[in-house]
Amino acid sequence: MNCDKKDLLLYAVTDRYWLNGETLYSQVEKAIKGGATFVQLREKNLDESSFLEEAKEIQKLCKEYNVPFVINDNVEIAKEINADGVHVGQSDMEAQNVREILGDDKIIGVSAQTVEQALLAEKHGADYLGVGAVFKTGSKDDAEEVSHDELERICKAVSIPVIAIGGITHDNVKELAGRGIVGIAVISAIFGQKDIENATKELKAETLKTVNND
Prior knowledge:
Elements (H helix, E strand, L loop, with lengths): L9 E4 L10 H11 L3 E4 L6 H18 L3 E4 L2 H7 L3 E4 L6 H8 L4 E6 L2 H9 L4 E4 L16 H10 L4 E4 L17 E4 L1 H4 L4 H17 L2
Parallel strand pairs: 1-2, 1-8, 2-3, 3-4, 4-5, 5-6, 6-7, 7-8
């Protein structure tokens, strides 16, 4: 499956923290209805069997809406359910190794904070890069901030699409205009909102403006 940069416009990363008695399935469906173009299932604390069950459910939902679906970090589960791909961080498996396990037709995303990391990920077969944190973020304790100038340098250095991640909201996304990104990845800006569908719709409109300003 090829990674179309249009699919990377509004990349929703799941987080159980915001469930408030809802199911992840219903929240993801609202996000997709609101215009999310890509879904990453991110689970840091679920046991393997629960993760697997959940992954199958969300995968089915994404297929219905024709939205690419990737798994965060867990290459084994991505392979087992034949997900569209996987997203790995710098401390996880190298893109090269992931590619060997999943094959050429899967989407591989890699987190990068520097031009050097970005070039290496591209060389090793990454299809897109997630660069950040571009703003202060509460969702990832260990996220180091990446300056907007460095973000732009990364976008210019690689030929694969780059999305910005980390602390992005409806109000600050426009600050990323002109840097070369094709989209944004968010957690709380979608899943932490009271009206997920509407919040996604409004965020998508702002992101389109931001990306089209390049």
